[in-house]
């Protein structure tokens, strides 16, 4: 499936899929977008929140955080 997304370079059409993502001992199924022009793996805050993980910017590492229901 392809979707229209907005990027810093403007609107582009990219592939959408689903993956099982594992970080440490945490695992979840997430929606992903696959780009032909962006060559980096980007993990957003929603994915981290769903896994109960946050980034500690002081030490530059991930750590567990309570799951939030809002």
Oligomeric state, counting identical vs distinct chains: single chain
* Main sheet: strands, sense, barrel: 3 strands, antiparallel
Distance between the termini: 29 Å
How large a portion of the residues is in β-strands, by DSSP E? over 45%
Rg, rounded, reads 14 Å
Q: Helical percent range?
A: 10-25%
Q: How many domain regions? A: 1
SS elements, strand count: 5
Low-confidence stretches: none
Instruction: Report the average pLDDT across residues.
Output: 89
* Pattern of helices and strands: EEEHEE
3D structure, described in words:
The protein has one helix at residues 45-51; strands spanning 2-7, 10-23, 26-34, 53-56, 61-64. The chain is mainly beta and 70 residues long. The chain has one domain (2-64). The strands form two sheets. The protein has a three-stranded antiparallel β-sheet. It has a two-stranded antiparallel ribbon with strand order 4-5. A hairpin with a 2-residue loop joins strand 1 and strand 2.
Record the SSE blueprint:
Elements: E1 2-7, E2 10-23, E3 26-34, H1 45-51, E4 53-56, E5 61-64
Antiparallel strand pairs: 1-2, 2-3, 4-5
Main attributes of the structure:
mainly beta; 3-stranded antiparallel sheet; two-stranded antiparallel ribbon; about 10% helix; about 55% strand
